Amino acid sequence: MPQQSPTPATDSGPAPGITITDLVKTFETPDGVVTAVDNVSLHVPEGSFFTIVGPSGCGKTTIIRMLAGLEDPTSGQMDIRKSSDDGPVTNSMVFQGDSLFPWMTVWDNAAYGLHMRHAPKSEIRDQVGHYLDKTGLTRFAKAYPHQLSGGMRQRVSIARAFANDPDVFYMDEPFSALDEQNKTILQEELLRTWEESRKTVIFITHSVDEAVTLGDQVMIMTGRPGRVKQLVDVPFDRPRSVLELRRQPEYGEMIYDIWGSLKDEVGGAAA
Ligand SMILES: Nc1ncnc2c1ncn2[C@@H]1O[C@H](COP(=O)(O)OP(=O)(O)OP(=O)(O)O)[C@@H](O)[C@H]1O
């Protein structure tokens, strides 16, 4: 199974993308100190799709929260940079379940980030129109979240994230609440949408299939305290078709290998 070294070194500092060095996060709890993330180092090249799998409670969400600036690391460094020189690195987040405003229409939800940063009306119209179209929601632009299925609501979250045109996407199990068919359809749509822009994505999932289907690299984490167990390069060509990919024998082998690596960790976490 191909693997990638976590070392991001270049002579002039970290390469564009996300570079994490010796990252540690502990939490004080009534039962003592919990080490959620333990000495994680990795480099996610700019424009790549990086997926993280690991047992429940191994610190996946904590890593994303630190990268997004919602949580301070206990120690270690994070360097997030881009190759273009057009201002600070921006991000959008997509979570499990949806985070839509129930009193806003689909259009207004998708336009929310752009409104918040006072984007020109023409940009809002173009961006929101484009991503509602990409996610098959144009007909539902005037609907409210309660009138949509779970899959459609999650599509709105994705349209909103992409309409915002950030440099980096943080996605935390965005499809985990969906049934298998909806999940596959949304994976296809996410790939199609992402392939247009090729922005950096960090995507957390419990599904090894999903991690391999979407990712350029998969990080396998140990059970808590969460460390990097293995970094696996996913060699399949892009653009990818989810169903075509799943027919390939190499795909099955890769899933099998990753499961082999993850199995002990999941068993350990459950014990
Ligand atoms: N604010 C907090 N205070 C105390 N402990 C926390 C806090 N946030 C996270 N933890 C603990 O840190 C560990 C890692 O949590 P985290 O949510 O990052 O794991 P995860 O891998 O995303 O889990 P899951 O896959 O179940 O979502 C867990 O043991 C969790 O209980």
TrEMBL record:
ABC transporter domain location: 18-248
Statement: the UniProt record of this protein carries the keyword ATP-binding: yes
InterPro entries named among the record's database cross-references: AAA+_ATPase (IPR003593), ABC_transporter-like_ATP-bd (IPR003439), ABC_transporter-like_CS (IPR017871), ABC_transporter_ATP-bind (IPR050166), P-loop_NTPase (IPR027417)
Pfam families for this protein: ABC_tran
Entry keyword set: ATP-binding, Nucleotide-binding, Transport
Listed GO MF terms: ATP binding; ATP hydrolysis activity
PANTHER family for this protein: ALIPHATIC SULFONATES IMPORT ATP-BINDING PROTEIN SSUB, TAURINE IMPORT ATP-BINDING PROTEIN-RELATED
UniProt-recorded name of the protein: NitT/TauT family transport system ATP-binding protein
The species this protein was found in: Gordonia humi
Lineage: Bacteria, Bacillati, Actinomycetota, Actinomycetes, Mycobacteriales
